[in-house]
């Protein structure tokens, strides 16, 4: 099976569950920002959890299926049409040869995930098909006219799938924290300040990190910290005092102190947070 991209929207990327363990190559873990949604889409069409799908930012996406198959779209909320008629998100949908799927602008959340039975095929890099936007490695961002090959479907029975609604723009997201390795670099009371203040997601956020806006944190030390290894979810604080939460395509090292780390299970929520979305930290 193969598919043709008609319109990619602002950004459409091939993503799977990433390439953990490739830091020695200068590559972050990568993979779908909302892993739960990709896993759900793959489960709906009977794919293996590690199968690659398409991560679609904001919508404005359309695709033609050149052969019959089974598809599912999960993640953000928005109008989904198949051959001109509305269809449901979070549902396995049969398509015929020549069918066209369109995803309108998202009404809640940021990222949709399209899975096709058999999974998207591409050239792997360090065991993953995911695009790393920081390293600019892995399959390129999709463009109109691109043809993607789809693997052989196993047509396995869909397993039980649990869905989580994307956050509404006015919703305050609660993210759980663990204390970071450089808490002592911050002024007394900084942990209380971090967890008692409300923060908002900056429009400068991307797959590399979610930049936060709010009242800056204060430092207790002014010397330069040597570069050290970074993990997904790390809250790195630059001289501005405004944290950045490292996401899937984060750099493997960093030279600013890490005050906390967001728990991995909560990062999927952050992947769907719109600019201006409010955040509070629980620690």
UniProtKB/TrEMBL annotation:
Gene3D superfamilies cross-referenced by the UniProt entry: Cyclophilin-like (2.40.100.10)
Give the Carboxyltransferase domain ranges: 24-282
For this UniProt record, the keywords arranged alphabetically read as follows: ATP-binding, Hydrolase, Nucleotide-binding
Q: Which InterPro entries match?
A: CT_A_B (IPR003778), Cyclophilin-like_dom_sf (IPR029000), PxpC (IPR052708)
List, alphabetically, the SMART domains matched.
AHS2 (SM00797)
Task: Provide the GO MF annotations for this entry.
Answer: ATP binding; hydrolase activity
Protein name per UniProt: Biotin-dependent carboxylase-like uncharacterized protein
Q: Which organism is it from?
A: Psychromicrobium silvestre
């Amino acid at each position: 099976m193969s598919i043709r991209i008609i319109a990619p929207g602002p950004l459409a990327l091939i993503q799977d569950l990433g390439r953990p363990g490739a830091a020695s190559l200068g590559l972050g873990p990568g993979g779908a920002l909302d892993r739960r949604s990709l896993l759900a889409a793959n489960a709906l069409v009977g794919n293996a959890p590690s199968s690659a799908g398409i991560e679609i930012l904001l919508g404005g996406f359309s695709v033609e299926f050149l052969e019959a198959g089974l598809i599912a779209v999960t993640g953000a909320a928005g109008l989904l049409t198949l051959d001109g008629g509305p269809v449901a998100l979070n549902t396995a949908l049969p398509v015929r040869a020549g069918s066209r799927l369109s995803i309108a602008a998202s009404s809640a959340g940021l990222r949709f995930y399209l899975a096709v039975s058999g999974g998207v095929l591409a050239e792997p890099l360090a065991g993953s098909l995911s695009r790393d936007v920081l390293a600019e490695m892995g399959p390129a961002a999709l463009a109109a006219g691109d043809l993607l090959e789809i693997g052989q479907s196993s047509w396995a029975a869909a397993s039980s799938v649990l869905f989580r609604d994307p956050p509404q723009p006015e919703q305050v997201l609660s993210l759980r924290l663990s204390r970071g390795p450089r808490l002592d670099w911050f002024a007394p009371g900084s942990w209380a300040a971090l967890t008692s203040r409300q923060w908002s997601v900056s429009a400068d956020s991307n797959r590399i990190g979610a930049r936060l806006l709010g009242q800056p944190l204060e430092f207790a030390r002014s010397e330069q910290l040597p570069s050290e290894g970074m993990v997904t979810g790390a809250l790195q604080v630059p001289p501005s005092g405004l944290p950045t939460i490292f996401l899937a395509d984060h750099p493997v090292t960093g030279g600013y102190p890490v005050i906390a780390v967001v728990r991995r299970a909560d990062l999927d929520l952050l992947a769907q947070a719109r600019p201006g979305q409010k955040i509070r930290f629980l620690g």
